[in-house]
């Protein structure tokens, strides 16, 4: 298990390094933040002075080496707009995004898993077809399209819910529904496939033959044997909820980290974007690392293959 854990840890570190490197290079190819901050009519001398003050006039390899050195020491720089540490700017928005991601994941589990189980036990019937049709629609419909449709229906036509912002608990309903839709669809499909694979096994027929109640069969036999697939999908959905919040928060003007990143990217606020993306990638890598460890605990064959 130690060798398996170390292998997954090295892969996680490599993924994190590759992500921060791509963001660093991509941002510097997107434009000059000094010119964006001062505007198109700014004096060239003022722009150049600002670039020197931020170290943007140095060669790119030297900027990259300085960035990695500061990153190792936990220094992500100061926001070019707010003049505050980038960590402080991002951490202010992080709890808002975390709440939205947690609620959307809870909705995905609460709706997707029972729907997948229902579809498996009603295989080939109307309930199965309806669940699969809904899953196909949920996976194919982009978040921003679904979000706009929900705003038009529930905010403008019915006037039941606010169209955006953070105005109380009701403001979270539409963003959470939008962000959870893909998760509901994925969990329903994968749960259905996992349960269908299990319910045709001989040991399940034996359990029913012994007179075990359906609830116990579902928990002790179906649930345990489908756990590997569900752990995989849950890990992926948590990653999607964290990373997908950027689009959803922009559509609903939700004051979280995703919207902050969209604004910082437009304003060329390099330190905020770099740290925000670092937090997102670190969250996704951490989730995948935990999922990999759970793989090894649930199925010993996986860790013995390393």
Description of the molecule:
By secondary structure, the chain is an all-alpha fold. It has 2 domains: 43 residues, no CATH class; 218 residues, MetI-like (MetI-like fold, Orthogonal Bundle), CATH 1.10.3720. 78% of the residues lie in helices and 0% in strands. The protein has 15 helices and no strands. The longest helix has 36 residues. The chain is flat, with a radius of gyration of 24 Å.
Q: Kindly report the average pLDDT value.
A: 77
Largest sheet: none
Spans with pLDDT under 50 lasting ≥5 residues? none
Structural class: mainly alpha
Number of strands: 0
The fold-level CATH name of the largest domain is MetI-like fold
Question: What structural keywords apply?
Answer:
306 residues; mainly alpha; MetI-like fold; 2 domains; 0% strand
Break the fold down into its secondary structure elements and pairings.
Elements: H1 2-29, H2 33-38, H3 44-54, H4 60-72, H5 86-121, H6 126-140, H7 143-157, H8 173-199, H9 202-209, H10 214-225, H11 227-243, H12 245-251, H13 257-266, H14 270-298, H15 300-304
């Amino acid at each position: 298990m130690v060798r398996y854990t170390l292998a997954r840890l090295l892969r996680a570190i490599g993924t994190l390094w590759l992500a921060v490197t791509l963001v660093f290079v991509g941002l510097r190819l997107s434009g000059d933040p000094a010119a964006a901050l001062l505007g198109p009519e700014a004096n060239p001398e003022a722009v150049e002075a600002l670039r020197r003050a931020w170290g943007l006039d140095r060669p790119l390899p030297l900027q990259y080496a300085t960035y990695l050195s500061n990153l190792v020491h936990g220094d992500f720089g100061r926001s070019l707009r707010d003049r505050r540490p980038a960590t402080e700017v991002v951490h202010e928005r992080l709890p808002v995004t975390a709440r939205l991601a947690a609620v959307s994941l809870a909705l995905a589990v609460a709706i997707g898993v029972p729907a997948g189980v229902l579809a498996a036990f009603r295989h080939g019937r109307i309930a199965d077809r309806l669940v699969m049709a809904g899953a196909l629609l949920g996976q194919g419909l982009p978040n921003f399209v679904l979000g706009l449709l929900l705003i038009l229906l529930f905010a403008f036509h019915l006037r039941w819910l606010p169209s955006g912002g953070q105005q109380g608990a009701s403001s979270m309903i539409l963003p959470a529904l939008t962000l959870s839709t893909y998760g509901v669809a994925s969990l329903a499909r994968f749960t259905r496939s996992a349960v269908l694979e299990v319910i045709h096994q001989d040991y399940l027929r034996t359990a029913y033959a012994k007179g075990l109640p359906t609830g116990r069969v579902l928990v002790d036999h179906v649930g345990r044997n489908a756990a590997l697939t569900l752990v995989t999908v849950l890990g992926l959905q948590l990653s999607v909820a964290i990373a997908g919040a950027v689009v959803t928060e922009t559509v609903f003007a939700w004051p979280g980290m995703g919207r902050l990143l969209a604004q910082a990217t437009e304003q060329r606020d390099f330190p905020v974007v770099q740290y925000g993306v670092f937090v997102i990638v670190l969250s996704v890598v951490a989730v995948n690392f935990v999922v990999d460890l759970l793989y090894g605990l649930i199925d010993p064959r996986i860790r013995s293959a390393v």
